[in-house]
Design a protein that fits this description.
About 35% of the residues lie in helices and about 30% in strands. By secondary structure, it is α+β, with helices and mostly antiparallel strands.
Length: about 375
């Protein structure tokens, strides 16, 4: 049960005695990946490790281009060295019976339409400190687990000129492609609920015209960090033609798209904005932190709140170490050792709602950053 601070000296002593973690655990599966395996042989397990490490490096860096780096190519050849743990599991799947096609011409009866098979999987968990050190040594930026959300609006037009809003009920395939990309890249994609309020204030025609003002206004209720809006025309010839608009930090990027494959059409804009977000928030970690920042935090009411605060700060990719500096009542002052700079810390914290800035503006350098803990 939580209890309020009644004795500041005693509380500070307790804080100083608590261990402060140097590195966090994998968050939201960024440092792990599950892969299908056909057997438990050494060769198959080696393949699984390589495939899983490739997937993890893509999530941690956020950009495809880094996978071509020579240091990462060498690491992929020695993927087992970075494995911390594996969790095997078996799932029973119901699939179409392949015998149906073979016996249909013979007129045989009582052949089941489906059969059950056993599929094996391995969830490979990699050591975060080893992955981060690999990337730091290669001077490759790391995209932390604290990532900006992307709200997606989309208008679709068929070859008859009829337009509709993207929804899971009418377009589950497109939603599925986007959700698969989100899992693959660790990108928090959210979709509008499309209730009466959404549909009244933002029509398919408004999204089709990429009405920036209307899209921005309606998107505010979702408090997303960025907004991706797109239009897709299914032509009579089967071509997919469209236009996209990405709004992030008051900047607007408009780009077109063309493809004949729906999955590729959806992948291209998502890959583009993921690279942009990763490039903005990623940190090239040094092997030892080099900048000190003081953080004054109000509202730390008990030891549980302190523990949550420290865990949160350690989850930020640029925070190397957290130390207690001073306590006055419920106001706690911490000293952070960073692998980046103060402005990057400000932006990372702004992605969440756990720390509310007090009398600060983005880009300002202050001797002490003041926040209120709201969790």
């Amino acid at each position: 049960m939580h209890y309020l601070i009644k004795n500041s000296r005693h509380f500070l002593l307790c804080l100083l005695m608590l261990p402060v973690p140097v590195a966090g655990l994998p968050v939201s599966g960024i440092y792990s990946h599950e892969v299908e395996v056909s057997s438990q042989s050494d060769a198959e397990r080696s393949r699984a490790f390589r495939a899983s490490l490739r997937a993890v490096l893509l999530k941690v860096t956020g950009e495809q281009r880094w996978l071509e780096n020579s240091a990462l190519q060498q690491a992929l050849d020695n993927a087992q060295s970075y494995v911390e743990a594996i969790n095997p599991r078996t799932e029973t799947l119901t699939v179409s019976n392949p015998a149906i096609a073979q016996v249909s011409d013979l007129g045989l009866a009582n052949i089941p339409a489906t059969i059950q098979i056993q599929q094996d999987y391995i969830d490979v968990i990699f050591a975060r400190d080893l992955i981060d050190r690999l990337l730091a040594t290669a001077a490759i930026p790391v995209w932390g687990s604290n990532r900006p959300s992307v709200l997606v609006w989309m208008a679709l037009q068929n070859d008859a000129g009829e337009r509709s809003l993207l929804s899971n009920e009418t377009n589950p395939e497109i939603i599925g492609f986007m959700q698969a990309f989100a899992r693959e890249r660790g990108l928090p994609i959210i979709f509008p609920v499309l209730d009466f309020e959404d549909r009244q204030n933002l029509t398919a025609d408004m999204i089709w015209s990429l009405n920036e003002e209307a899209i921005t206004a309606v998107s505010q209720r979702y408090a997303a960090d960025s907004v991706l809006s797109g239009r897709l025309h299914f032509t009579a010839s089967g071509d997919l033609v469209g236009l996209w608009q990405f709004i992030f930090q008051n900047q607007v990027d408009v780009f077109d798209s063309f493809d004949t494959d729906l999955q590729n059409y959806i992948h291209e804009p998502l890959d583009r904005i993921t690279s942009e977000l990763a490039g903005h928030f990623s940190i090239i970690a040094s092997l030892s932190g080099n900048q000190k920042v003081r953080l004054r935090v109000e509202g730390v009411s008990d030891l549980a709140a302190y523990s949550d605060l420290v865990s949160y700060l350690q989850s930020l990719v640029l925070v190397e170490n957290v130390g207690v500096s001073k306590l006055q009542g419920r106001d706690l002052e911490l000293e952070l050792t960073l692998q980046g700079d103060q402005s990057q810390l400000y932006e990372l914290i702004a992605l969440d709602r756990d720390l509310l800035p007090l009398n600060m503006q983005a880009g300002e350098n202050q001797s002490v950053l003041s926040y209120r803990w709201t969790r």
